[in-house]
Amino acid sequence: MKNHYQILIIGGGNAGISVAAQLLIKNSTLEIGIIDPSENHYYQPAWTLVGGGVFDIKKTIRKEADCIPERAHWIQDEVLSFSPEQNTLKCKLSGGISYDYLVVAPGIQLDWHKIIGLKENLGTRGICSNYTFESAPYTWETLRSLGSGKAIFTNPNTPIKCGGAPQKIMYLAADYIKKQGLLQKSEVHFYSGGGVIFGVKKYAEVLNQVIVRYGIQTHFNYNLIEIDPVSKTAVFETKGDDNQLLRTEQQFDMIHVTPPQSAPDFIKNSPLAIKDNPLGWVDLNRDTMQHNRFLNIFGCGDAGITPNSKTGAAIRKQAPVLVDNLLEYMKGKPLSNSYNGYSSCPLVTGYGKLVLAEFDYNNEPMETFPFNQAKERYSMWLLKTKVLPWLYWNKILKGTA
Fold it and tell me: Nearest 10 degrees: CA dihedral of 215, 350, 194, 289?
């Protein structure tokens, strides 16, 4: 078993694989290892559509071995710790592995345990989440049997992957209830740990119109902390006028939970994490994707401290910047490429309706198409449901998009 690689990549998800593929396209002689324990690879952006009953969950999964670039070596293992001063790390099965250059792209951790009563009851009693392959189909099952009940959709007070996901399933659910003629007899609530519906004003304006259309009741700065599955009660925490924490309870027939999220624990507890940050993000330069302290380490994707929205679209713009800058660094050249914080959020607002939000670090729109994207469009729905899944499997993971 090899115990040294020229370039070692942590994570075999979107970020790790697309970076490896792009590196090998530019230089096929590179010796690259990818560490990831997962047997399967998932196209997670489609899980919202699965929860809304319009996408086959089986089409979101492939074998990890089939996604790894041919000239990269897959190390099916878990990272336990890092020793960046010695250019080494320790794995659960493989022991110590050394590297010349490291790319950190482990993805994000779902902290189910931070909500009392959630993990052990997910997928039962109307408690749903589209954030796992196993639980996403239950969202659709619950929605179909909801009738005229009370549906709650939550958004935590931490950064999350796919920031629009908590809203997308809510709009699909409200549209479904409306199509059944039950919207006037139902209640749809959005409880968010954040303070606004969306950070980019242009898109927030159209989303507020959607909220009015469905009669959704919004509650900002409310963070879910507990679920009682027996009484079907959700407990939220908010701050009063004197900054004291207050608890409030809300009954539900259906609750879709977006769990709080953070960097994986093995990152959080390592020298690679930004200091004094409880969520443990990798300490990266927001422009170059290079580590701020260990210069032969680069990072990409959801685990980084870069203040962009954590989406696959962000990875698609970060990856080529990282690849070019890493290759320049390997040649002793100054880093000349810069990431501007671009991200995209395809905001599903109902069946056959989508607002394509694209924006940068400053929350300024960066739109691709020659029309106003702050408008619900069927063409963008087709982009989300047909084009992007094909693009992911056939181009992005192969390093050609």
Answer: -170
Tens-digit pLDDT profile for residues 192-205: 999 999 999 999 99
Looking at residues 297-322, what average pLDDT do you find? Answer: 97
Q: Which amino acid is it at 10?
A: I
User: Which pLDDT score, from 0 to 100, does residue 241 have?
Assistant: 85
Q: Describe the crossing of helices 201-214 and 165-179 by its angle, rounded to 10 degrees.
A: 30
For 377, the 3-state DSSP assignment is strand
Q: How far apart are CA 387 and CA 385, in angstroms?
A: 6
The three state secondary structure string of 39-77 is CEEECHHHHHHHHCCCCCHHHHEEEHHHHCCCCCEEECC
Q: How far apart are CA 381 and CA 280, in angstroms?
A: 35
Residues 128-147 pLDDT 10s: 999 999 999 999 999 999 98
Sign, CA torsion 197/203/209/214: negative
d(CA 110, CA 328): 34
């982009």: which residue's tokens? 383
Kindly state the average pLDDT of the residues 20-27.
98
Which DSSP symbol is given to 396? I
Tokens of 90: 């320790």
Put residue 383 in one of left, alpha, beta given phi > 0 → left and psi -120 to 50 → alpha.
Answer: alpha
Q: What is the pLDDT of residue 240?
A: 86
**Sign of the CA dihedral running 107, 308, 217, 186:** negative
Question: Is 0.70 surpassed by the pTM of this model?
Answer: yes
For 101-130, the DSSP string reads EEEE----EE-GGGSBTTGGGTTSTTEE-T
For residue 327, give the amino acid letter. Answer: L
Residue 242: predicted pLDDT: 86
Alpha carbon of residue 277 to chain centroid: 19
Number of H helices, E strands in the chain: 10, 21
Cα-based distances in Å from 391 to 314, 386, 399: 15, 9, 11
Give the tokens for residue 366.
């960066």
Q: Which residues are catalytic?
A: 162, 345
Cα separation, 21 vs 10, whole angstroms = 14
Distance CA 308, CA 359 (A): 9
Assess contact for 216 and 189: CB atoms under 8 A.
yes
Q: Tell me 335's DSSP state.
A: P
Strand partners, 223: 237
Contact 18, 397 (CB under 8 A): yes
